[in-house]
Amino acid sequence: MSTVTIKPRNRYKIHPQKFALWSAMASIIMMFAALTSAFIVRKAAGNWLEFELPSIFYVSTFVILLSSIIMHGSYLAYKRGKAAIYRWGLVLTFLLGITFVVMQYSGWTSLYEIGVELNGNPSGSFFYIISGLHAAHVLGGIAVLFVAISHAFGLSFKISDKRLLRFELSLHYWHFVDFLWIYLLIFLLIQ
Amino acid sequence: MAEILKYQPDVIIEKEGFDDHFHEHHEGDKYQSNFLSTYLFSMDHKIIARQFLITGIFWAIVGAAMSLVFRMQLGFPEESMAWIKPLLGKWIEIDPDGVGTLSPDFYYALVTMHGTIIVFFVLTAGLSGTFSNFLIPLQLGARDMASPFLNMLSYWFFFLASVVMFISLFVSTGPFAGGWTAYPPLSALPQASSGSGAGMTLWVVSLVFFVVSVLLGGINYITTVLNLRTKGMSMWRMPLTIWAFFITAVIGLLSFPVLVSGFLMLTMDRALGTSFFLSDIYIAGQALDYAGGSPILYQHLFWFLGHPEVYIIILPAMGIVSEVMSVHARKPIFGYRAMVYSILAIAFLSFIVWAHHMFMAGVNPFISNFFVLFTLIIAVPSAVKVFNWIATLYKGNLRLNTPMLFAIGFVSMFISGGLTGIFLGNSAIDIVMHDNYFVVAHFHIVMGVAAFFGMFAGVYHWFPKMFGRFMNETIGKIHFWGTLIGAYAIFWPMHYMGMAGVPRRYYRFDVFDTFRHFDTMNKFITIAAILVFAVSLLFVINFFYSIYKGKKVEDQNPWQANTLEWSTPIHPVHGNWPGKIPSVHRWSYDYNKDEREYIPQYVPMTPEEAPENH
Ligand code: HEM
Ligand SMILES: [Cu+2]
Asked: Which of A1, A13, A27 has the most B C-beta neighbours within 10 Å, making it the best mutation to test the interface with B?
């Protein structure tokens, strides 16, 4: 992304691109806020199918949480100049990310098997749309991780402001989709 | 009156400005090397602004032309429309006597497209896209947007949205015809009406692209305002234009995603058989197997965007009017801080009033009370702004040129339309008024005409900066008076029709005994609409003619304004300032202060000026 080079000035407490990413997160949050409040309103109206979440969703939650922790480790390793941990940490994060999406998918199929259909009672439709939209955002994160890995292995190891910034942007987004899922899961459970 | 001063921005900026080493990188020239990257896929915010403006003008002509066709139908339902058959093709049905009638389906499509196009493509993209892009970097003393690349994408997503919507006008089943709000079931069932099939699919795709454009633009505007202000440009020194664009972007960022969620659910209802918004539907006696959904849910999601959206449209116009008015009244804007706080208050309140569009949709009347309350409270910050504009005019050295006239006209329109909003905001009165011509009059005056006036004020005022030439003043004044009188002539009578209960979106009224006596009034409105369209064409001609042939700007600061954009060269380069960027020493409204007629923001304070006086 080409950015007009403005010399870093201390007056700015936060980098513009980081700020832009956070603004984007705010708008993603609004998307989910819309869905979850529609969920509440619709549920209050009755005729609502209750079902138990297949346990694989708890495993997938653990997986994405783990991936976040590992990515953070990789980030710390990068800052301390430990190239190997940095590189393989990213790979692990990437693999766990993919595992998460696969698990979500198998969770959907087992839901389907117990009779919760996409086009059945809105209760099921809401579950699919919320978790599906979240998975789409995870896929975006996986694409970002892919780029990060190709940088990690393709470029010679070097600690620079620019690469640190890139790493932080990817890291924040990944943590974001992680916490977003945890929030959504808790929401779906207590609702 | 103090004498007109001349400042030498280049000299002052060289001496006092801030050196960001911009030109040592030669970044400025790198991506402006050939025709394509200069004019088409440009990342320069000034070019992108002009792209938004010209695309907006295109859509304004299309949208307005559509309104003429349906106004003709309403004013002269008996007349033959055979003469526009070459343009509308099969949508004009010719009977054996050669009399052409507008197809009712297409009438609805026209009304729908008119609303969609004007609200989103003209008054959102054309207004805030143009002026946020143009003015944010220039007035803040920034080289460009935080991310010029995302900025370029923002325009091209808008372009893509435009292309898709334009294509939808030509599909054989016609464009979407269920109203600009796209309520289900008309929007959710492809078989519900002829426009609900391909037309609606294209409509929703187009609007999703549009939202992406708004979000990319908005993220950029917010980031730029918060991070790239030049040295000395504190938030409280920003011109009100920037405050308005900034808050507009924040509103957009928080409300458009909600619409996307609604659209996602709508699309699933359309394509995957879910029942988010559908229940117990019969089509042609056939029961469909959708069960358990609620169309009201869609209305909540839509209006959660929809109401903030009307402020997304009006706030930039308000910012432009504040700035233009202060410059041409040669007075500081009255109550600067009150202006900012009322923008903030309006922005906040705009999120908690949406259900006033749904009083009659079966919302719990007790809950409605809250929405009545908050809706009426919005009138307070709105009135503060109106008071401040009038107080700014009071005892000013008014220059009644075209931009100023449009700014004053804006205030007139905003008062007229705002007052009727207070009627509608009372749920009891709304029982009668809902979905009739009173509402049509309300929102066209307060949003449609007022926002157009703000846009015109901005175009006439900043045209010299955009194109290095002036627009013709005489034509400008004809344009203003024609539009002012014409717009009132169109919309004022609609209040009476509304009070008599005439419903909106009907195909013809002459067949109803109750409404037949409005025939003359309908003709009158249609003729006024044609006249306004004609003077608008004058504007378009003036605009394009002046780009090439207008009077050349000779003076760097032709309006003697204080804001930073007038310290750039007459034709600003990429990066906006050839050398250092200006540093800012005062707010932007030092007009007629200490015997000086005006003091631009880049002029340092004299020792006598106490630092706390801005
Ligand atoms: C004093 C402030 C205002 C109040 C109290 C107010 C109130 C209302 C109410 C209650 C309605 C719903 C009427 C109905 O459908 O029965 C309405 C419609 C509308 N208002 Fe306002 N309004 C105000 C200002 C504005 C402003 C500033 C704008 C735009 C810039 C605006 C744009 C609209 C639009 C577009 C609609 C109609 C949408 C549609 O149904 O197609 N209003 N207003
Ligand atoms: Cu509203």
From this structure: A27
CB contact set of B567 (below 8 Å; sequence gap of 6+): B9, B10, B13, B556, B557, B577, B582, B600, B602
Average pLDDT, integer, range A164-183: 96
Angle value at C-alpha B483, between B64 and B397, nearest 5 degrees? 140
The pLDDT value recorded for residue B205 is: 97
Measured between alpha carbons, how far is B149 from A1 in angstroms, rounded to an integer? 6
Place of tokens 């006249």: B531
Quick one: B113 and B234 in the same domain?
A: yes
B145 and B194: one domain? Answer: yes
On whether residue B102 sits in a domain, the answer given is yes
B34 domain-assigned? no
Q: What is the pLDDT of residues B31-52, one digit of tens each?
A: 455 666 667 778 899 999 999 9
Residue range B385-413, pLDDT digits in tens = 999 999 999 999 999 999 999 999 999 99
- Which has the minimum average pLDDT: A7-16, B282-291, B368-377? A7-16
B225 in the same domain as B94: yes
Q: Note the pLDDT of residue B1.
A: 42
d(CA B110, CA B136): 35
Same structural domain, B12 and B50: no
The verdict on B8 and B83 lying in the same domain is no
Residues B104-133 have a mean pLDDT of 96
- Count up the domains in chain B and report the number: 2
Which member of B142, B143, B274 has the closest CB to residue A118?
B274
A25 vs B: CB within 8 A: no
Selecting from 3.30.1360.70, 3.50.50.60, 1.10.10.60, 1.20.120.80, what CATH number does the domain A51-190 have? 1.20.120.80
Whether residue B143 is found in the same domain as residue B209: yes
Q: Tell me which of B211, B238, B265 is where a domain ends.
A: B238
pLDDT (tens digit, 9 = 90+) per residue, B432-478? 999 999 999 999 999 999 999 999 999 999 999 999 999 999 999 99
Share the mean pLDDT of chain B.
92
| Cβ–Cβ gap A4/B143 under 8 Å | yes
- Boundaries of every domain in chain A: 51-190
Q: In terms of residue numbers, what domain contains B183?
A: 44-238
Which of B142, B148, B253 faces A27 most closely, judged by CB atoms? Answer: B253
Q: Is A47's CB within 8 Å of B254's CB? A: no
Distance CA(A71)–CA(B337), nearest Å, equals 46
Q: What burial class does residue B369 get, using C-beta atoms within 10 Å of its C-beta: 0-12 exposed, 13-18 middle, 19+ buried? A: exposed
Half-sphere exposure of A178 (CA within 13 A, CB side): 21
Per-residue model confidence (pLDDT) at position A4: 43
User: Are B71 and B168 part of one and the same domain?
Assistant: yes
List Cβ neighbours of B127 (8 Å cut-off, separation of 6 or more): B56, B313, B316, B317, B451, B454, B455, B458
Do B11 and B140 fall into the same domain? no
* C-alpha B325 to ligand 2 mean position (Å): 27
| ipTM of predicted assembly, 2 dp | 0.91
Last residue of a domain, one of B195, B222, B238: B238
Q: How many CB pairs under 8 A join A and B?
A: 127
**CATH number of the domain encompassing residue B216:** 1.20.210.10
pLDDT band of B525, cuts 50, 70, 90:
very high
Closest C-alpha to ligand 1, atom 14:
B434
pLDDT band of B24, cuts 50, 70, 90? low
Q: Which ligand is nearest to the CA of B436?
A: 1
| Ligand with the closest atom to the CA of B375 | 1
Residues from chain B contacting residue A50 (CB–CB below 8 Å): none
Q: Is B443 in the pocket of ligand 1 (CB under 6 A)?
A: yes
